[in-house]
Amino acid sequence: MDVSSLFSGVDNLFKFLFIGGLVMLLTSMFYPLQKEQELDIEINSYNKEVKLLNRELGELRLDVSKLNKSSSEILAELRTLKQGERTKSKLKKSSITKQIKDIKANFKTNYDSLYKRKQTTEIKEIVLDFNKSKIILLKKYSDSYGDYTSKLTWWGIAFIVIGLVGWIISTITAELLKIKELKKP
Q1: How far lies 57's CA from each of 35, 63, 113, 126, 147, in Å?
Q2: Cβ of 76: how many Cβ atoms within 10 Å?
Q3: Alpha carbon 107 to chain centroid, angstroms
Q4: What is the pTM (predicted TM-score) of this model?
């Protein structure tokens, strides 16, 4: 039996431990970093969406206050037109009735437009709430990655040291055995 072949198999085991340790160490350094970057991008995207939604809500509030103000003016104008309708002739009454219908249609269009914008905004708020809970979960996972990172780092370092030392010792031992076998007559 050739003893050097035995050490060659052990040599491969130590090489495997060394390479496996390197993979663990590199993974423990780069994978959590990648996840942290994804979390930062998600938070940045969320903050952008919140700013846009707040701006949209501000514009919606402004438009609602304008509609409230214009509705007061429209009501006053409608009262005036209805009072004039009672006192005017048939030709003028039809003209006034047409004006009233146009005013009502215009107001209804504005109201419907604001209502649709309100619904869209509510949907966006729901999506933002979902994104906020998603970010909270990602932060929780990021914290757990920290635990795994430290464990993987230490296991990687241990495998590297064991693999490297074992590899060096098995290589030296195999070379010494070859030298002894060559010296035998």
Answers
A1: 33, 10, 14, 14, 41
A2: 10
A3: 40
A4: 0.56
